[in-house]
Amino acid sequence: xxxxxxxxxxxxxxxxxxxxxxxxxxxxxxxxxxxxxxxxxxxxxxxxxxxxxxxxxxxxxxxxxxxxxxxxxxxxxxxxxxxxxxxxxx
Length: 90
Hints:
Elements: E1 9-12, E2 15-18, E3 32-36, E4 42-46, H1 50-58
Antiparallel strand pairs: 1-2, 3-4
Protein name: Antitoxin VapB
Region (Disordered): 67-90
Organism: Sphingopyxis indica
């Protein structure tokens, strides 16, 4: 397991800020992605590492994930004739 860091949130102008330890390897000017989770936790990574993060998630799926394929879903026919973006065929 990796080392755990603790930090305090503070007010900076009209925003909230979080001081990150240098040991995390994030440098001034780096773009980061912050992903909130349903349980209230967050994940944070450098935007330049997004592909690595995505590929790391690949192994997180359960062995039977999509074992039966996507399966087709019922979809309504779309009326492309009148140019109306929301027009569905009856």
